[in-house]
Each structure stands twice: as C-alpha cells, then as structure tokens.
Design brief:
Elements: E1 2-7, H1 18-27, E2 30-36, H2 40-52, E3 56-60, H3 72-81, E4 87-96, H4 104-121, E5 125-130, H5 133-143, E6 150-152, H6 159-167, E7 171-174, H7 186-191, E8 197-199, H8 221-232, H9 236-251
Parallel strand pairs: 1-2, 2-3, 3-4, 4-5, 5-6, 6-7, 7-8
C-alpha cells in the first residue's frame, strides 16, 4: 500500500481524465491521495474532490506565490474549509524566494498566520520551501511544530539544513526528481530516517523516471518509493509500509 501525500488533482491538466487518474492510482495500490490547495479557489476544488472520492483527502491553504493580493476574507474561508472532516492539513503554505511573487515580509506574515490557524485547528502543516532556508528554519524553530506535525514537501536544501529540520522532529518528503540521473539528493535520502519520511508525487509536476517529460500522477508514486528503497538498500515493501503508517498517523487518515 502506498499513500500519495501531495498531489494537485484539481489542476486543469487533469480535467479530461481525472476520474481515470484516481482509479489508476487505486489499481496501483495507492490507498489514499491528498490533493493540495494553493489558493482559495483550488482549496475549494480540493474539498469538492475529497467529498466525491473516498480515496481522496484534501489540504487547504494559501501558497507563498499566491499570497500577494490575498484578502483577509480568503484566510477566513480557508479556516472554515479546514473544519471539513476530509481536510487533513493546512497547506500548501511556506516561503518561496525563487519566484518572489510576493515580498518576503508578505510571505512570512501569511505563513505565520496559517501556522497559527493550524495550531488552533490542530491540523498538521504541509510546507513549501524554496531558496528560503534560513528564514524557514527560524520560523519553524520559533513555532515549535513537532507536536502539531509539519512536513517539508519536495525537500530541498543542503546537509546542514536537513540536520536542522531533523533536530526539530519534522517530516520531509521527496518527489520524482530523486529518480533523475543528475539528482543531488541521494545522500539526503540515505540519511533521512524512514520514520520521518512521507511519499508524494506533487502531481502533475516532477514526474519520475521512466515517465519524465509526461504529466505526473499519483500512480507513479511507486517509482519514487523504489528509488528510496534502492538508495537505502531495503525492500520497497518496507518503504511502502512505514511511509503509509507515517501518513496515517500524521494526517489522522481514516482508511
């Protein structure tokens, strides 16, 4: 059994065959998929999908690249959505200093506001971090999220940043880019404790080999799991079992 803890099934690239994509994932032993909101519209769509499909759960939040013009009302609606029984996390939230579609101050304010929201609702966090390691670490250390639960999805960063995140007792997940020939994440995957790993695809992005260049989808999560197993020199069944147990516990999934 596999659990894809990060996909964007509500995105337009799935409009023509969304139901087939979900069915294909189930047929490939993906027991659950979490579809992630990045703004109010996509969060509403994520909840709609979670209501329609038993295997789909939702996360709701405002992404750092979408927070520049967000009104207070949007955050209020996100908080309302987060009380839905199939909303299992606040996300995708965080910092992105690569695209810089909002100022650093705006991003940090939106991130911290949603951390407080997650604490109030007792929901774990799904965190986006791109080229913002120092500010990210300072916020995470200050907020003390180990008991609440937080995962840095599509983990990026050097060994020093990785060690800091592990010291905070947080989770990480890797995407299909670890299967690329020029991947620089091998040692991080080897070092990462299996008990702190979640599986994800980040569909429709970051498609793993051998499907690179095509649209990603939850059924392909097995290829990331196999790469993790190969690097750690353990059976893929062990990766599937432990990461699924992690996901069920972390997101309080009722499978």
């Amino acid at each position: 059994m596999f659990i894809d803890t990060h996909a964007h099934l509500q995105f337009k690239s799935f409009d023509e065959d969304r139901e087939m994509v979900i069915q294909r994932a189930i047929e490939n032993d993906v027991a659950a998929m979490i579809t992630i909101g990045t703004d109010l519209t996509s969060s509403l769509q994520a909840v709609d999908l979670a209501e329609k499909y038993a295997a789909v759960y939702a996360a709701v939040g405002i992404h750092p690249t979408d927070c520049a013009e967000v009104a207070d009302h949007d955050f209020d609606r996100i908080q309302e959505l987060a009380t839905h029984p199939k909303v299992v996390a606040i996300g995708e939230v965080g910092l992105d200093y690569y695209h810089m579609r909002a100022t650093r101050e705006k991003q940090k304010n939106a991130f911290v506001y949603q951390i407080h929201m997650a604490k109030e609702l007792k929901k774990p966090l799904i965190i986006h971090n791109r080229e913002s390691h120092q500010d990210m670490y300072e916020i995470l250390a200050e907020q003390n999220l180990a008991d609440l639960g937080a995962v840095l999805h599509s983990f990026s960063g050097d060994d020093a940043f990785f060690r800091k995140i592990m010291e905070l007792d947080l989770y990480i997940s890797f995407t299909g880019n670890i299967t690329f020939k020029k991947s620089t994440s091998d040692q991080l995957v080897v070092q990462a404790p299996l008990e702190r790993l979640l599986l994800e695809t980040d569909s429709p992005f970051l498609t793993p080999a051998p499907f690179r260049g095509k649209r990603n989808e939850p059924a392909y999560v097995v290829h990331t799991a196999r790469k993790i197993a190969d690097l750690k020199e353990i059976p893929v069944e062990e990766v599937a079992r432990v990461t699924s147990e992690n996901a069920v516990s972390f997101f309080k999934l009722d499978l």
